[in-house]
């Protein structure tokens, strides 16, 4: 290699190696400080795309878990109200049994019937008043067999969405709650004309009411059993979603997160190369001085 003044090839080569090493050192510093292998699309374009899709799925699944927990809270609210309705029906059956015997006068049966009707009115009040976040649960609002969410307010049975997509087989299912008013259960004066459970004001009506109340209790128990099954299903759904979210997060971590041990090895390597390049560039920059020595004799 010729000794020249206008061009210092060794210094240029050392400068180029310094730039490469320093750039690699900066990349390692960024990865170690952020904990991410992929910080920009330039690091891994395909990996970045996969990571962002996984992140969106994880976020949707986490919200799905919250949605399912909200649905469980709603079901528990309905079940708690039905438990009170159960107590009222039991008391009504007790009153009907009392009025069905012949040791009471007609006036006394009317007094018993007044409490019977009060219990029926309370059942209707509970059914009409029980709501969760403004959604009425027991008044027939969720008793329809179909669902429509096209309007501002959804109608029909309630749709619980917990999956990251919109497939009926895996992303949502419905909560349907039967009507639990006294008239729907067939007891009290609100029941259909001729219904056996309308009144216990006479001995015959009281005897007929026993069967009607038994039917009402069975109807109420079916609603509660359905709610219990839905709650168990939601709890299993939550468990599955949590496992799915954990696995997605682990997969995303494998793609996105930095391997600290490997990256630290690269960091030390690039640090040594950078320091060596700086030292060699300093030496190479001093080589043209040899030409001055030759010129000065």
UniProtKB/TrEMBL annotation:
It is found in: Secreted; Bacterial flagellum. Residues 210-294 form the Flagellin C-terminal domain. Transmembrane segments: none annotated. SUPFAM superfamilies: Phase 1 flagellin. GO terms for cellular component: bacterial-type flagellum; extracellular region. InterPro entries: Flagellin (IPR001492), Flagellin_C (IPR046358), Flagellin_C_sub2 (IPR042187), Flagellin_N (IPR001029). One of its GO terms (molecular function) is structural molecule activity. Keywords: Bacterial flagellum, Cell projection, Cilium, Coiled coil, Flagellum, Secreted. It comes from the Bacteria. Residues 220-251 form a coiled coil. Flagellin is the subunit protein which polymerizes to form the filaments of bacterial flagella. This is Flagellin. It comes from Solidesulfovibrio fructosivorans JJ].
